[in-house]
Every structure is written in structure tokens, then in C-alpha cells.
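Quick one, C-alpha cells below. Sequence please?
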């Protein structure tokens, strides 16, 4: 499989198949490099909710805004709480969460918009970033899918919202699964496995796990989200999957698990500029 997230400079990976298909589309993921943060957050920390200096995060964000030619006054961010609440946003929501945590949209892990000149943003340090794009309807979306959000069906809910509320054909929904922790690096206990089995069934649980002992399993959260999308009616050709591991690719990414919680945050982003 060809890696769809292509590193363009030390700070950015872009979803090349998307940006090549639509020159007005901006979609990708930040690295940990090329910023001004120090210590545990060295150097391109994009998260306000970790104990980094707020001024450093603002400088990092403005740096990325300049690289993308997408000013922060057009960004939208949310307070991610590992749930499955999805919110449709418009240009009237621009700047929320862009330069402060307090202004972010509350209790929301999924965002989508039909408006141009809106950059949706979401933050990560091992969880799965999901990107949604409808070329014909010009919709873009993001979802933050840790194991809790995955079990609660955040990917499924985004698909359902687009099909039911936005009248998007299932054949016109494209999804990219971004850099996240890999199965080999992600061990969970039986309580997580019980939730996955309860929601998806024993067979699916067995397809995405490797049992390491009586109480522990290695979980392929990336594959679980892939299967969820297939179950919603997407074909594999509509789904791009990154092979990057946020824990193992230490030179590129922050990792909550690798760094014992003392780390920065990476940012997913997607938006369309006006033609």
C-alpha cells in the first residue's frame, strides 16, 4: 500500500491523493518538528490543553497557518472528550479554538462543514484521525477516534449524518485514516476488549486483536476503524490508510503512550479554499 500522507517539509504531511484531486483542498497532519516549544513539548506542540506555554502554542499555530496559507482566523477547533458528538460548523464558527482552548467548541470530537475558507482542526497523540471528503458536495470533516470514540461509533455517525442530513451518496464519501498508534505498539486490557466485543461482536474483535496474555491484547485501532467504514457501505477504494505509527516514528510524532503522558499534540486539518 502506498503511503497517502506525504511529508512536504519538516512540519507537515499532506494527503497527496486528496490535494492532487482538488487544488483547493488542504488536508494533512502536523509533525512534532519545526516549532518553538521546549521540554516535553519540543517543538511543534499544537495543543493548548497540555501544560506548554500558551504563547508558544500560538506561535506554532501561526507558523502552520502561514505554511498552509490559511490564517488562524479561519480555523475551527473543538474540546475533544473521547465521545462521539459531531457538530456541523459554518464560517460563523471561524476562529473558535484557533488561538485559545477556552474558545473551542465544547464536548465535540467530530466536525464537518460545507463552507469554503474554513479549516477544521483536531488534536492527537496516538488516537486515530479520520478525514472525510465529498468532492461532489464539497463537504469536509474530521473525527477524533480513540478506542472510546471508535466504540461509540464516531466514524459511523459521520457517515450517517452525511447520508441522511446532507444527502451525500455513499459512493461520494472518501475517508482517510491518519497516522496513529500501531497494533504492535498498542496494548490494552480486557476491559477495553469487552467494550469492543459488546459493540462489534466476537468475530470482529478477534480480527483486530492479538492476545498477549490472559488480560492483555494488542489492538489494531486503525483496522477497526477501517472495518467500521466498510460496514457503513464504503468500498476499500474509498478509504486511504496511513502506515505511520505515532509511537514508533519518534522523530516525526508525539506519543502519549511512549512519553508517559508528558508530550505535545499533533494536529489534523482539512478545509477548502474558495475557488
Amino acid at each position: 500500500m502506498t503511503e497517502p500522507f506525504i511529508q512536504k517539509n519538516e512540519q507537515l504531511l499532506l494527503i497527496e491523493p486528496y490535494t492532487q484531486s482538488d487544488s483547493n483542498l488542504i488536508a494533512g497532519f502536523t509533525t512534532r518538528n519545526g516549532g518553538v516549544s521546549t521540554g516535553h513539548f519540543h517543538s511543534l506542540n499544537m495543543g493548548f490543553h497540555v501544560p506548554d506555554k500558551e504563547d508558544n502554542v500560538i506561535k506554532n499555530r501561526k507558523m502552520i497557518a502561514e505554511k498552509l496559507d490559511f490564517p488562524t482566523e479561519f480555523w475551527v477547533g473543538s474540546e475533544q472528550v473521547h465521545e462521539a458528538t459531531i457538530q456541523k460548523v459554518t464560517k460563523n464558527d471561524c476562529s473558535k479554538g484557533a488561538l485559545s482552548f477556552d474558545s473551542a467548541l465544547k464536548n465535540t470530537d467530530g466536525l464537518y462543514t460545507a463552507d469554503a475558507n474554513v479549516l477544521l482542526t483536531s488534536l492527537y497523540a496516538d488516537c486515530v484521525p479520520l478525514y472525510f471528503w465529498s468532492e461532489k458536495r464539497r463537504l469536509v470533516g474530521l473525527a477524533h477516534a480513540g478506542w472510546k470514540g471508535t466504540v461509540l461509533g464516531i466514524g459511523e455517525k459521520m457517515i450517517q449524518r452525511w447520508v441522511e442530513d446532507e444527502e451525500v451518496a455513499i459512493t461520494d464519501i472518501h475517508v482517510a485514516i491518519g497516522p496513529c498508534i500501531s497494533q504492535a505498539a498498542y496494548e490494552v486490557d480486557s476491559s477495553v476488549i469487552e467494550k469492543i466485543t459488546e459493540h462489534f461482536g466476537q468475530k470482529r474483535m478477534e480480527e483486530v486483536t492479538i492476545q498477549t496474555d490472559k488480560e492483555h491484547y494488542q489492538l489494531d485501532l486503525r483496522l477497526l476503524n477501517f472495518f467500521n467504514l466498510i460496514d457503513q457501505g464504503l468500498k476499500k477504494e474509498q478509504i486511504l490508510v496511513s502506515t505511520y505509527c505515532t509511537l514508533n516514528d519518534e522523530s516525526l510524532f508525539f506519543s502519549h503512550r511512549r512519553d508517559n503522558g508528558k508530550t505535545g499534540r499533533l494536529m489534523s486539518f482539512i478545509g477548502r479554499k474558495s475557488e
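The longest strand covers residues 118-124. The longest helix spans residues 54-68.
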